[in-house]
Amino acid sequence: MIKSLYTGATGMRAQQKNVDVTANNLANINTNGFKRDRANFEDLYYHYSKSPGAPSAEATEHPSGIYVGMGVQTGSTSKVYTQGNVEKTDNPLDITIKGDGFFQVLNPDGSISYTRDGSFQLDGQGNIVTSSGLYLEPQIRVPEEATDVTIRKDGTVSVEMPGQTDPRQIGQIELARFVNPGGLRSQGSNLLRETPASGRPRVVTPGRDGSGQLIQNYLESSNVDVIQSLTDLIAQQRAYEFNHRTIRTSDQMLQRAATLLQ
């Protein structure tokens, strides 16, 4: 009975983590390019009082053993990289990646971070930056006198200039792909960091080598499904209550046993 107390406690801790993950998903329902997280669980070690295949008194083997699991733990949390809904904005610096890949942005320390958030802006010098002021990598500067910005599906950036009939190409947006995007580390501000688990980035031209194409004047919204998340939240609450009931039942059984010993 003592084991069931600890087993129920592991279940409550695991479901609390599950609720925390779902709450974060719902909190980011309006975050551009946000990918929902999922908690993955694994059972804990088992206590064996008899192992399967152990010899019996009759010189035979037991076809099954006697063992009791010790509960559950959160093995990992992972992002689900399904495509979010695409919404029209009519802002020429809003870009959606339709398919696989990440934008590259330059951190103040010179390192590179990755994002699916394509809501870019111009800084005081005309550089294309994120909402927090980080440069798009490779860096692209829009001339002050430019009258229009065009971003093609392959990432080519061109502008209309006064007195010129043909557009002037000013840069090329590139995308980064990873063998295991689930291994990227979230750092906040819609940014992700490379880790040994994600593998090294492979920088490609949009639309080539399996990468997605770019769509100008559109933004990718969060891929969080509100209805599914609320349903999950109810199921997680019930699972938490069931594990709490396990602890309460074990406590009642111990109380009854203690009464018999009096």
Structure write-up:
The protein has 262 residues and is α+β, with helices and mostly antiparallel strands. Strands 7, 8, 11, 15 and 18 form a five-stranded antiparallel beta sheet that branches. A three-stranded antiparallel beta sheet has the order 12-13-14, with no helix packed on it. Strands 1-4 form a two-stranded antiparallel ribbon. The chain starts with a helix and ends with a helix. Helices cover 23% and strands 31% of the residues. The longest helix has 35 residues, at 226-260. The chain has two domains: 2-81 and 224-260, no CATH class; 86-220, no CATH class.
What's the arrangement of secondary structure elements?
Layout: H1 2-27, E1 37-43, E2 46-50, E3 66-69, E4 72-79, E5 86-88, E6 95-98, E7 102-106, E8 112-115, E9 121-122, E10 128-129, E11 135-137, E12 148-151, E13 156-160, E14 168-172, E15 175-177, E16 185-188, E17 191-193, E18 202-204, E19 213-216, E20 218-220, H2 226-260
Antiparallel strand pairs: 1-4, 2-3, 5-20, 6-19, 7-8, 7-11, 7-15, 9-10, 12-13, 13-14, 15-18, 16-17
Helix pairs in contact: 1-2
Name its key features.
2 helices; 262 residues; 2 domains; alpha+beta; single chain; elongated; 5-stranded antiparallel sheet
Topology as a string of helices (H) and strands (E): HEEEEEEEEEEEEEEEEEEEEH
Q: What overall form do the CA principal axes indicate?
A: elongated
Secondary structure class reads alpha+beta
Distance between the termini: 19 Å
Calculate Rg over CA atoms.
27 Å
The number of distinct structural domains comes to 2
Low-confidence stretches: none
Number of helices: 2
Number of strands: 20
Q: What's the average pLDDT? A: 91
Give the assembly state of these chains: single chain
Proportion of residues in extended strands: 25-35%
> What is the helix content?
10-25%
Biggest sheet layout: 5 strands, antiparallel
